[in-house]
Amino acid sequence: MKTNFLNLQLNSPLVLASGILGLTASSMKRVVDNSCGAVTTKSFNLEARKGHPNPSIVPFEHGLLNAVGLSNPGAEEAIKEIERFKQVSDAPVFASIFGRTIDEYGKVAEIAVKAKPHLIEVNVSCPNVRSEFGTPFGDVPEDTAAITRLVKQVAGDIPVSIKLGPHGPGIARMAKVCEENGADAITAINTVGPGMLIDINVQKPVLSNKTGGVSGPAILPIAVKSVYEVYKNVSIPIIGTGGVTHWQDAVQMILAGASLVSLGTAVYYEGIDVFNKINMGIQTYLEKFGYESIEDFRGGAH
Amino acid sequence: MQTFPIQKIVEHGPGVKSFYFEQTFEALPGQFVNLWIPGVDEKPFSISCEQNGLTEISVKAYGPFTQELMKKKVGERLGLRGPFGHGFSLKENSLLIGGGIGIAPLRRLAQELSDLGMRFVSLLGAATEHELIFKSHFQEISTCYFYTDDGSFGEKGLVTEHLLQIIQDEKIEYIYAAGPEIMFVKVKELIDPLSIPYEFCMERYMKCGIGICGQCVLDDSGVRLCVEGPVLNQDDLKGVTELGKVHRNATGRRE
Ligand SMILES: Cc1cc2nc3c(=O)[nH]c(=O)nc-3n(C[C@H](O)[C@H](O)[C@H](O)COP(=O)(O)OP(=O)(O)OC[C@H]3O[C@@H](n4cnc5c(N)ncnc54)[C@H](O)[C@@H]3O)c2cc1C
Ligand SMILES: Cc1cc2nc3c(=O)[nH]c(=O)nc-3n(C[C@H](O)[C@H](O)[C@H](O)COP(=O)(O)O)c2cc1C
Ligand code: FES
Fold it and tell me: Bridge-partner residues for A215, per DSSP?
């Protein structure tokens, strides 16, 4: 299912979300071999980070609660994986970056561009490092504006998408701030929360970090609504993310206004084959309604 | 997350213990659980036995987590998630090669093979006698060859010492191995030319145990050790270029 996005050509509108199997070229390659259109790396910053101790990812009935804590091997190491991936695959690769300070975003972006990723996704909305970083930059309009401008300056002709969460002063307003400051796209949404689960026998929080971001089926309605609102408020394209597990969920995202749909937690529920299954489902939907492509119904719910 | 009180603890020797929990699931030989010490961390451990309604894991004290585990007492609650991963296949006339704490998953395999009446031979090695855990169990149900680094039990040396001779003498048709990575490299080197099929039970740093974080993925195959492993066969291993060379630490960096 050929899909155009900004200046890119994808074989499917589906994208692997950041933080899921995106640590190495070999696992991203495996996902692309299962008909995923583009891959996003695990978010990286300047220095290597171990992340939080385990348990850092725990399933519950309707999704996952995670506080991986942005573990990553550091930007210089991470871009080697991007370079390796580009040697073995033609699929676009999105570099996900973050920083502990606004300046660090610029520095990490400078390193990221060396590997010439097809897009830079700027994670300003991770909810599980609050104890360390404080309020996410993505909740503060001035910070988000500054980061967007900074990354755009170093990105050159590589497009930049800002990844937002559903919190803060309102995602539609934040998306507008990104657009006004030069963002080429919006990724919505990151995990929701933070949330907490408590073990009733040990009588303590299960995550070592106590709190973490919620993903998976539980957040689909929040994600669909976020994409819907962002679509209304900006004209740059949206990578719709959050709770997409079945093809019907992906279609909802597109009807809300998403140009691409990314998924992560679904790999837990449906396996790596989930990309094949959702592609086939969307194809059936196109045929049923007589559409040529997903463009024909994008934003159709408005 | 489900937590269970420790039912029983057996000390095999200094720094090597088995912990028993009420059995709430059936695991295939080679599968593992994520063991959570509340307030400390959570790490993967193979199931070493399922018997009399108890699930057993066997642990060697190593770093901070396993040291902490050694202090746990009967009745204390630990989290147990699993069983995870893809286990051993069950084959006749096999050789079980175990090094150190790698003997743990082989104990569960030996139990299963023996229950099914399938013939196997055990080739076990460790640093010293008390680390040859379960040696009397293995002796009861199979022909055994033992090796220790210090010569305190069996022959002094490595399990690979007379490997080819044993394979020939015992008419071995299938090989299982679990232990340190350097042992796999040596074993693989020796048996690849024989074209006897084999399976290795491997270890990598794990976070999620459920196939999403990417931490345990092997280069260049993209195999997720927590889902498609920890037991890999000779075909799975063909695409693995990092065996005995590098692995990723908690940050994901190769070292
Ligand atoms: C599938 C699998 C089965 C295992 N089965 C057993 C077993 O039956 N008995 C046993 O004693 N040990 C087993 N291990 C190893 C066990 O998980 C490590 O001994 C333990 O994590 C060491 O932690 P530590 O804090 O004591 O030591 P550390 O000093 O932190 O680490 C010691 C070594 O263990 C490895 N390690 C540390 N953390 C992890 C982690 N989260 N995941 C995987 N490896 C890690 C490190 O790479 C290092 O080489 C198994 C590992 C895996 C992956
Ligand atoms: C284990 C895990 C790790 C994640 N790590 C990151 C990350 O490093 N950077 C990021 O921007 N988002 C990260 N996310 C968020 C996802 O990219 C995605 O936005 C969110 O999980 C919602 O989508 P899903 O329901 O399809 O998983 C992570 C999510 C999970 C479950
Ligand atoms: S430990 Fe997370 S993918 Fe295997």
Answer: A64
A54-94: per-residue pLDDT in tens? Answer: 999 999 999 999 999 888 889 999 999 999 999 999 999 99
CB-ligand 3 contact for B209 (6 Å cutoff): yes
CATH 2.40.30.10-classified regions of chain B:
3-84
Q: What is the mean pLDDT of residues B159-174?
A: 95
pLDDT tens, residue by residue, B60-97:
999 999 999 999 999 999 999 999 999 999 999 999 99
List A25, A124, A126, A239, catalytic entry: A126
CATH topology of domain B3-84: Elongation Factor Tu (Ef-tu); domain 3 (2.40.30)
Instruction: From B84, B219, B221, B224, give the residue whose CB has the most ligand 3 atoms within 8 Å, as the site to mutate.
Output: B224
Active site residue A126: yes
Query: Which residues in B202-234 are b (16+ Cβ under 10 Å) and which e?
Result: bbbebbbbbbbbbbbbbbbbbbbbbbbbbbbeb
Confidence (pLDDT) at A12: 96
CATH assignment of the domain containing A12: 3.20.20.70
Is A118 among the domain residues? yes
Domain count, chain A: 1
Strand intervals (E) in B85-204: 94-99, 120-126, 143-148, 155-156, 174-178, 198-201
Query: How far apart are alpha carbons B177 and B94 in whole angstroms?
Result: 11
Interface of B with A in 233-252 (CB under 8 A): 248-252
* Interface probe, candidates A21, A26, A44, chain B, greatest B C-beta count within 10 A: A26
pLDDT tens profile A11-70:
999 999 999 998 899 999 999 999 999 999 999 999 988 889 999 999 999 999 999 988
Q: Per residue in A126-153, pLDDT tens?
A: 777 777 777 888 889 999 999 999 999 9
Distance (Å, whole) CA B159 – CA B146: 8
- Min CA distance, B99 vs chain A (Å)? 27
Q: Which residues of B touch A77 (CB under 8 A)?
A: 252-254
